[in-house]
Amino acid sequence: MNPEYMDLDRQGNVLETGVLVLGGGLAGLWASIKARALIDDVLIVDKGPLNWGGLGSMCGGDMDVWDPNDDVMSWVDDLVYYFDGLIEQDVIELLMRKSYERFLDYEEMGHRFARDDRGNLRRVKQRGLDHVSALLSRPFGTGGHNLVSVLVNRTNQLGVRRLGRIQITNIIKDGEGVAGVVGFHTRSGEFYIIKAKVIIVATGNANWKSSYGTNTCAGEGFAIALDAGVRMRNFEYLKVWNVPKDFAWEGQTMLLPLGARFVNALGEDFMNKYSPKLGAKMDPHYNTRAMAEEYLAGRGPIYFDASAMRDEDVELLTPTGGWMGVNYTRLRQMGMDFFKDKLEWIPQINYAIGGIDADIEGQSNVKGIFAAGRARNLEPGVYLGGWAVSGTATTGAIAGENGAKMALSFAYQPRIDPALTAKIKHEVLAPLGKAGIHPKEVLNELREVVAPYDVSILKSEKGLSRALNRLKEIQEELLPLMAAESPHYLMKANEVRAMAQVTEMYLTSSLLRKETRGGHYRVDYPGRDDHYFGWFLISKERGKLSWSFRRVPVENYKVKPNRYYMDLFQSPGNPIIGGQDAT
Amino acid sequence: MIQRVDQSKCIGCGTCQRICPLDVFRLDVKQDVTSPCSAACPIPNDIRSMHYQLQTGSIEGAVRMMLDNNPLASVTGRVCPRFCESECTRKNIDAAVNISAIEQYLGDHVIQDWVDKVPRRHAAPVAVVGAGPAGLSCAYFLAADGFQVTLFEAKDEPGGMLRYAIPEYRLPSAVIAPIISRLEKMGVIIKYNHALNDAFSLDDLQAQGFRTVFLGLGAGKAKKLEVEGVAGEAIFSGLDFLKGVRTGRIASIGSSVAVVGGGDVAMDAAQTARRMGARSVTLIALEGEKDLPAYRHNIEAARAEGIDFFCSLGVGRIAHHGSGTKVIDLVKCVCVYDEKGNFAPQLDASACSQVTANTLILAIGQEVDPASVPAGLASPEGLIKAGSDTCQTSAPGVFAAGDAVTGPASVAQAIGGGKRAAQAIMLHLRGIELVHLPPRMGPVFEGLPEEAAIERSMRHERQPFYRPGAGGFTELYRGFDVVEAMAEADRCLTCGAKSIPSYLDDCMTCFNCEINCPTNAIFVHPFKEILPRSLRPIEW
Description:
The structure holds 2 protein chains of 2 kinds. The N and C termini of chain A lie far apart (about 65 Å). In chain A, helix 1 (about 25-35) runs parallel beside helix 11, helix 13 (about 440-450) packs antiparallel against helix 15 (about 460-480) and helix 15 runs antiparallel to helix 16 (about 485-510). Chain A has helices at about 25-35, 70-80, 90-110, 145-160, 220-225, 250-255, 270-275, 285-295, 310-315, 320-335, 385-410, 420-430, 440-450, 455, 460-480, 485-510; strands spanning about 15-20, 40-45, 65, 110-115, 125, 135, 135-140, 160-165, 165-175, 175-185, 190-200, 230-235, 240-245, 260-265, 300-305, 345-350, 355, 370, 535-540, 545-550. By secondary structure, chain A is of the alpha+beta class. By secondary structure, chain B is an alpha/beta fold. Chain B folds into 4 domains: about 1-30 and about 495-540, Alpha-Beta Plaits (2-Layer Sandwich); about 35-115 and about 445-490, Alpha-helical ferredoxin (Fumarate Reductase Iron-sulfur Protein, Chain B, domain 2), CATH 1.10.1060.10; about 125-220 and about 370-435, FAD/NAD(P)-binding domain (3-Layer(bba) Sandwich), CATH 3.50.50.60; about 220-365, FAD/NAD(P)-binding domain. Chain B is about 30% helix and about 15% strand. In chain B, helix 14 links the parallel strand 10 and strand 11. In chain B, helix 7 packs across helix 17 and helix 12 (about 240-245) packs across helix 13 (about 265-275). Chain B is globular, with a radius of gyration of 27 Å. Chains A and B meet through strand 8, helix 8, helix 10, strand 16 and helix 13 of A and helix 4, helix 17 and helix 18 of B.
């Protein structure tokens, strides 16, 4: 018998930890900081750089923080309205309360938020809501980078251990609970076996690599969680963002209130037509829906026009530091002036909103597997400025605390069967060094599946079914032919396989939800339907995805939904797809 | 999207490959320019390349490379005074990379199913005399190249000074054993209790067919102190004391111990005495506090153990009292060296004090045992004369290196000598003039440009198993685990390497590489990948 089947140490590097955090971004860093306060051994494993800190370093750093002078239930009421009722009110109340604690933590760690002359925090109301507001990170332009830095420094001070460039491929269970994970180094292919009492999944959202700061998280965290029996939800929602066609730009929501506008090919500020109340200040999902409708009506392309902004505002919002500074300067050198020229913008899928279905303590349906940050799903598609900075801190801390408590509650280290890991190792590394289809080319096919408007923004039975048929072909014909000439491409191939599964979750969930709510817009079902007032849950059984449904327990909640953010948006009537009247 | 790295500006610091979220970059570490650490290493180890192996996640690659560089990494990782770290570029940023701890990690790492057997590739056998660091190193490199090597050792166990001069808590015997068994698996025959000039001569080796010989005789003879009362019970040389403790021959030393000497053997003897239970240990040295010849880390370790330092003092006479107590007269040492730099201590007998001790250890230095040196090979100073670069002695086919050539020096210098001698022997046996020996290193990396800003990062240290001073002969420091080794190797700036954009597929135009490049060598075009732009209307 192959000696590997008897001995873990012969298979690769074996490590042991109490709490294992998958993903070292904002949520994973928060989880490890709070876990480390309770337990000695916390290990972060990331497939990215060792001390990087995740995609949060690219964001503006603004954070939705509950104002303790305000009634927290007013915030819950705002959010129930904004999310069209599809939210756990007890969870959202807890997170809002916790957001203030995490803000205090951030300032204690040395991060700064903007204050006025009298020292009061500056708050910016979000998306036209009455209460919910964000604090602004200072200094402008490098806020996200600074948030990440203070957290990384704190984890290092606390002695949180860290491994970089390791892609985890499987969660190993011990009966009903977890025993650890296995994975490989994405540069060398060397195999790792990590024993853990508790696993916190903080791997971010899944995306199709839109090249807008989101190319790293591809849904492998969900793939391994599904395989371990974890339930997912809200995969019918995408974050669709309006972005410059050619380059990246952060901070449009700051520009819009200062005179910047989206205009169509006719020069019309079209959003006023779709949302007379809020115009382009509405959630960007509605802006992109309007952009798509303008295209279909023959009034594309869409431009971002900042030429009406006052000079002092332009000066205030001209990026000077960080990646935005280099970006802006280089565009100017190429003859493109962001503030003076009309530059084309397009709607683009940023990532899938769906994630792990967790309880209020952050634990999934599988004992010992917790979820944090964007990997834990909260919301149905629409997206507040400052939401992720807030949510990564609150859900990260919750998962870290509760995960550590659970790890402390049992003394033994779970056992891992060497025969099982030897078999997995063989399967995981099998594509290595073989010839086959390059993962990036399969990714392009998946992008083509989700890209069309009738699949991603103005969804219809026809579009979604067509996409699902094409996906099946890709899954059957192309996925098995993917190979990996190096460990780097083995990682990419795993990403693409995970993306294909996310695509399946997206398309099927979108077909199932025959109504419109939050960021999910069905052209053929443009209204709300109480029949769908709940969550489509996804689990994996015998290798196949399956769906179930759980209603929102609104009878247990204080706020009874009677107003809906989605109603602020009206389609004026599109000759091709029909407007609201066509229903 | 990333467009180019200007190779003329790239200094190889690896910042781009360290921080790129999509892992676009790799480094080319095979360069003519030598990194400052390797330039300072007497062996020398290709430190940049080994660290890069770890940065690319290949522990196996790094371990194999370590073995190709230095077969005694588990030893030097523990006892080397770290010539490399004193030159590390990171020293000027935050703290030197803990090269030593990484070396220990690689040296200690065991690769399963290692193929040790090397096919024979040479006709003539080689004799290596002395199984200390120089001899073990030379024997390893010759055997690894396919030579038939026979190793002759005077004592009944291998290791030389490694075994007898360095205490167990710094270098456990368990570390030496695998090095020897690896050599044996590679086919090296070891003959113990074979002392040169005693059991056999160079002529005997010649007669046995060894036309090529390496001498790694070491400097294992303790120098004698010439003062009144120096002989008697419970008076040892430093080397005899350390050896006696290692072998269990010396079991008790009383409650007070005096150690004479300021070098590493003295420091080790003093700390060992402490661990033997001596309540008071006094170290007497001719040199001033700041000029002690021992390595700094060893002095600090002795201080941490609570050794009392009596500096700038010499020994006058030693009186023996009935109970075995020795009273040592101390006289002030005015100066240690003469104008020419020769050892010539001047004592001022008018300033006198006394120290009493149950046991006295004299560790005033080591020298080559003249009885071990073959006739005609010795220099006037009592060392073996050999070319510093070629290791060639005046006898044809006889090469030498290590302490016997240099005088007492570091383990790394002995290993480097043995390695160089092996290279010379390989040329010699092909009839090639030794002027063709490749240079030990290329031009040295010039250092970071002044304006280059490198992100700071915390140095990892080996943690003690127990509090210094708590006694015990088990190893004091725990070696790195995989997490620490990888993290510490990630700090290495791979000085002199070049960055190569290698995996361009998924660059997300985040500008991280360009912004953080300390020499502005990277250019990122602001336009993103075109393909995901495909979000577009279809024919409805």
